[in-house]
Amino acid sequence: MKKIISYLIVFILFAPVFLNAQENKGPDAVNTKKPMEDVVYLKNGAIIRGIIIEQVPNKTLEIKSNDNNYLIFNMNEVLKITKENKFADPTEYKKKGFLTINELGFGFGINTINTYHGSVDIAKQNPIIGLRSINGYQLNEHFSFGLGIGFEAILDGTKKGALMPLVIDTRINFWKGKFSPVLDLNGGYSVGFQYSSGIAANPSIGMKLYLTNKIAYLFNIGYKVQQLNVKTKDEYGGTIIRIVNYQFFSLSTGLSF
Known about the structure:
- The protein is mainly β.
- The protein folds into two domains: 50 residues, SH3 type barrels; 165 residues, Porin, CATH 2.40.160.20.
- It has one helix and 16 strands.
- A hairpin with a 5-residue loop joins strand 14 and strand 15.
- The longest helix has 22 residues.
- It is rod-shaped, with a radius of gyration of 27 Å.
């Protein structure tokens, strides 16, 4: 089990490096799977992007620019002609591709914790704070999925501890465009340090707002359950193990790109 968890952690941490290297092989690399356009570099420093309509060897070149102007140049004005990937339209937001989400989260304890032997009211449940990184794939403007790893610091009474959640993250964007409400279904298994390990779930709703055509700001409000094995005393004073579901009201904020 420990080996599987170790392999999973390594995959989550290093997968985006490999995937981005495959998608972007260098600043001047041309990706033939993306839309292409003709680019004419003039000797005076001007750059014209569009579609070449006609080229007469050693005489003239006619190009329809991206702003729908038809331009004709003498070939002695031309420095070079290339085919390159189209510039991204700043109003066209990310539709698909590899996705990384980095978030900062807070959890505020709810005054009831559930066990398999009933609910227990407690005077105070201290908060948690954590970071998580999710790497995955955006299938279209509405749906993405990924694997995530995080670190959470938690304080339970006088006992300080930490957890490392390993999660599956699925997000549904309801609208296309710059802004959308989002449903996030997030759950998995938390590896304990001072604490025991246990199942975790954190469904939430929120918003996604694009700051550029690829980078978006995220904000979510949700409900988090963290299941742990807790040592307690039975009615005879003996030590027993109880499965406890700690409950939190959660807030998270971050960026996706």
